[in-house]
């Protein structure tokens, strides 16, 4: 990547100070009119908008929110509006896993003030870092529903020394308040956990969640970024709604996920998986199927390479 393209990428992710300040001012204005907006120190922000008796608490990454679209709102903001749900959107400006005393204090205060008691249903939603946060902070609203996609149980080095992906957060304390996901989520009425059992690290985190209120759904060969793939398939919203109303079943999930077979990202990941596993005969069959549907130079190249390997083995 050139220096020029590097600079352009950084500009996209790190907004100018004046623009960020204006964006925060707009969120504050929305909060003043429809709920509240709070800056929780330098790294976290919370926006609450009251609409209905169902509250969805979401956990996002501020950098991703900022570059996603012109609205730059918390995850699901527009979507929850169409459903008439209230939303409390937490945003992080860095890969913090929300390990910050000001965030802890924020949820302590909401619980002490009876904030969650005004809603008929409270749902905590998140993916990856956000899923960890959804699990631990759900303890502030006992009886809630948790939707956790590819969650981490903890990143405490003494408990998960096998977790090698998130070095940036290793220095943070995961033994303070709201620390261990499987323990914190026990207060929830039910937890829906989605993960790929063929992704070893995600499967190891999922194995730590053993509560009776936890229902696990296996999303095979979908990798860590399940939520973004669901969004591409058009099934993120119906899956979320089914979790909220309690109608989600393995059969429904698998029916929604069938479209993944025609998704180019899923096909690329399957190609890489077959190649890494050395399953060249199956890889050839898979590539031939893809090539019968569309032009795919990478698949043709890998198919020819696998054919050469199979020929040498004879």
What's the layout of helices and strands?
Blueprint: H1 3-13, H2 17-34, E1 35-39, E2 44-49, E3 54-61, H3 62-68, H4 77-83, E4 86-92, H5 101-112, E5 121-127, H6 129-137, E6 145-149, H7 181-184, E7 190-195, H8 200-207, E8 214-218, H9 226-233, H10 236-245, H11 250-257, H12 264-276, H13 280-293, H14 297-313
Parallel strand pairs: 3-4, 3-5, 5-6, 6-7, 7-8
Antiparallel strand pairs: 1-2, 2-4
Helix pairs in contact: 12-13, 13-14
3D architecture notes:
The chain is an alpha/beta fold and 314 residues long. The protein is 46% helix and 16% strand. It is built from 14 helices and 8 strands. Strands 1-2-4-3-5-6-7-8 form an 8-stranded mixed beta sheet, with helices on both faces. Helix 6 links the parallel strand 5 (121-127) and strand 6 (145-149). Residues 1-16 have low confidence and may be disordered.
Q: What structural class results from the helix and strand content?
A: alpha/beta
Taking the alpha carbons of the first and last residues, their distance comes to 41 Å
Kindly report the average pLDDT value: 88
Helix content estimate: 40-55%
